[in-house]
Amino acid sequence: MAPSLPPDPVTVQVTFSAADFAVIREQARASGVTVEKYIRQFAVEQAHEDERLASKIPPPLPWPRRMVLVPPPVTGESFTSWMDAVARENLCGRNALLMEFWKVRRSPSSNTHLLAAALSEDDIARISAATGLPAEGITALLIRRYTDGIPALPTDGEWYEQARSFIMDYFFNANHSRWCPQCIEDNGGRWPLRWKLAWSYACPDHKVFLNVVCPDCRESQDSRNWPPDMRLWCPGQSRGGEGRRGGKRCGYPLAESTPQPVTDSRLIEVQRWINYGFGEGDRPGDGRNPRGLFVFPALVDLILRLRTPAMFGDADPVIAQATGDESRSYSMFTGLVSYRDQADPLIVAGAIYLADRLMTAKDRRAESDWFAALAREGQEARSRWDSEPLYVPPGIGQLVYPFVYEALLRQQVIRDSP
Ligand SMILES: [Zn+2]
Ligand SMILES: [Zn+2]
């Protein structure tokens, strides 16, 4: 098809920089044509190229029709959990929901996290039109709700930005979700978004630690493009003939997996504050506000790296046991930021317990010295090449609680310049 150029002859005024014009003149001379002819040829080629690109863009999808059966999201629910609820109600799979009902272009192989992260403004407008849920209501189900703003963070611009990106880089579990068995039993398999945050270690309503892998097949949950009716049963592959359904889906009832009770009430209190700090739930009525966790998020990360069993002697027995268990597999998750210690709710709970203790102790200096001395011992006990001081980059150093930072420097557990 002929490119849609203005009819010939036409007068077009074009401005070139002196440098560009020198290049054009040079190329025109090399091609043996006049500068005017060279520019005209270039314009025709450009028009062909635009035409070619335009023909590659697929035609727009039709606008979706309003669905009849749309269960509203429950408070704090994740996008994929709500999507599955809508699919279940309409007896269809995820891809049918996305492509046939919502008219959103999606690759069927997308994992659930990528799928939710990749939704464009146009996609959200389509989902809104199909479901009747306002666009803001849909955005609130997406992880960008946290990346866009964490209410508990200091308002100081630079600090805010650093702390926010540190939390999202280190403590957001991109490829799986934890769960409280009692919660999904009570609400029929609806999964809150906050269960994807590494700082969600307990359910304050049921006072239990969250689960992270299926007790039968050890698969993580809410990870892949699984059928929407697998929100109450493990969709993992059962191993060989030993599994519950011999080689098929594991099918373990997730609501029946036994959680471990939280006996330290401070851990529940801190979890309530963390949820509130992320903008969820009511402000806890009493107790100390552990906002320092948000202000100094790198402290939790440092504790994860430097911990020794001796630091958790007074902790909740479940945590003391988990942190003392050297054989515990911390590397069961791979992926951008869902890895190792951060993936284990008991280990993170231990680090948060200790961070809270260091920041709220009566004698914070003495407490920090105690921690640094144990960290030094631990470092020396490890292999030779692991006992070098840990390098803390300058921007990160200010995200560590100052008393602890200074104590660790004094003990040469960390160093702050290369
Ligand atoms: Zn619960
Ligand atoms: Zn399983």
Structure notes:
This protein is an all-alpha fold. Among the domains are: 1-57; 79-142. The protein has 19 helices and 4 strands. The chain has a two-stranded antiparallel sheet with strand order 1-2. Helix 13 packs across helix 16 (345-360) and helix 17 crosses helix 19 (402-410). The radius of gyration is 28 Å and the shape is globular. The protein starts with 17 loop residues before the first helix and ends with a strand. Bound molecules: zinc ion (2 copies).
Short précis:
This protein is mainly alpha-helical.
Please state roughly what percent of the residues sit in beta strands, choosing from under 5%, 5-15%, 15-25%, 25-35%, 35-45% or over 45%: under 5%
Helical fraction equals 40-55%
Structural class: mainly alpha
Instruction: Give Rg in angstroms.
Output: 28 Å
- Bound chemical compounds: zinc ion
The residue ranges in which pLDDT falls below 50 over 5 or more consecutive positions are 329-338
> DSSP helix count?
19
What's the count of strands?
Answer: 4
Distance between the termini: 62 Å
Look at the structure and give the mean pLDDT: 85
Strand order of the largest sheet: 1-2
